[in-house]
Amino acid sequence: MLTDAECRNAVCPEGNLQARFTDGRSLYLQVSPAGSKRWFFKFKLNKQSKLLALGPYPKLSLSGARAERDRAKEEIAAGKDPCATRKLSKLKASIVPGKTFREIADGWFQKQIENWSPEHAKRTGRQLERDLYPWLGDMEMPEIEPHHVLSALQRVEARGALETADRVLMVCKQVWTYWMPVAPKHGRDATQGLKARLTPYRGKSFPAIIEPKRFGQLLRAIRAYRGGFAVRTALQIAPMLYQRPANLRMMEWQELHLDEALWVIPSAKMKRGLEEKLKGEDHTVPLPSQVVELLRNIQPLTGSGKYVFPTPRNDGKPLSDNALRTALYSLDFGKEQSIHGFRASARTLLVDELGLDVLAIEANLAHQVEDANGRSYNRTQYRKQRLKMAQTWADYLDTLANGAEIIQFKTC
């Protein structure tokens, strides 16, 4: 049996790699030539010899080492491996980023942010800071009850932001999903069942005209618009290309290949996740002759700048999100048709009135779809076919705008 004095004075003999000083019952103090001292407990489990490191001396005293050895023996008697138990404890300690909701949520946020677009990261961070941290941030996770979370969500609902409340609940669910695998035994998911306690809401669809005669009236109104040249041109192009409003407003001259009748939108500007923005393919949009003509007409006016449709001040910024919307309202069509709604209008009329290929339409919309064989539709293929479809659609819109009688043909 060792004494405290023997432990303090223990040294490794010169020339030895280490020295062991046995205390008894398989506990010993190992001393290195440099003078460091560590406690070890040697044991057998399932006929295999194992070694458990208990800690350094004098931080772990002789009596403390004996107590740790006795605890390990109790685990062995219960059929447990003390080495595995301590490994698991260390792993849990390294994984759990904190105890409070703010600490756990910050850990989850930092794990996810690399896979998010800047817009999504900014929105999620704002929801945490504004809608959750003031009420839950300083509470320890095991202490948070469903009614605490519900109270925070109801504050969001109180300002009329029903959709935001639903999104904030989704954020909470992900925080608890991140925490639960390493939660204490008494930890539980405080978000379960809360969806049913929120006020139901219906997602708003963008207004869109899908009746050919009324759509023709809209086109005639657009062509008669007397506002700024950039707004007027963008307004005429919008229904022909039916791309997302942000992509249309921020169209750049360097993205256009007018001789090839193509608009190539960089992947980074598309509505995609961060990884796909960085690694995904660019989105190609075939241009009918009518659009090419409109773009050539505006080129002498804005071609020296970055954007095809700059602000009226032409200060290097694209048209605002409100510019085209205001134009539609000035034409008394704002409640019936939105700029984004041109996508729904085109999707409906291209199929119902012209009977064109749904896969090609979805490709032009930049929707990820699969063909009958389960393969993702390749937007870079069938360029000639898609250009033909784009021209057919633009010619059809000319027919509607001219007020000609529309004869519907049955498609096979």
Describe this structure as you would to a colleague.
This protein has three domains: 92 residues, Integrase, DNA-binding domain (Double Stranded RNA Binding Domain, 2-Layer Sandwich), CATH 3.30.160.390; 97 residues, Tyrosine recombinase, N-terminal domain (DNA polymerase, domain 1); 190 residues, hpI Integrase, Chain A. It has 16 helices and seven strands. It is elongated and about 105 Å long. The protein has 412 residues and is α+β, with helices and mostly antiparallel strands.
Short recap of the structure:
With 412 residues, this protein is an alpha+beta fold. The chain has helices at 4-9, 62-77, 82-95, 101-112, 118-136, 146-158, 162-179, 212-223, 229-241, 245-249, 274-279, 289-302, 321-330, 341-352, 358-364, 383-401; strands at 19-24, 27-31, 37-45, 48-57, 256-257, 262-265, 283-286.
Topology:
Blueprint: H1 4-9, E1 19-24, E2 27-31, E3 37-45, E4 48-57, H2 62-77, H3 82-95, H4 101-112, H5 118-136, H6 146-158, H7 162-179, H8 212-223, H9 229-241, H10 245-249, E5 256-257, E6 262-265, H11 274-279, E7 283-286, H12 289-302, H13 321-330, H14 341-352, H15 358-364, H16 383-401
Antiparallel strand pairs: 1-2, 2-3, 3-4, 5-6, 6-7
Helix pairs in contact: 4-5, 4-7, 5-6, 6-7, 8-16, 9-12
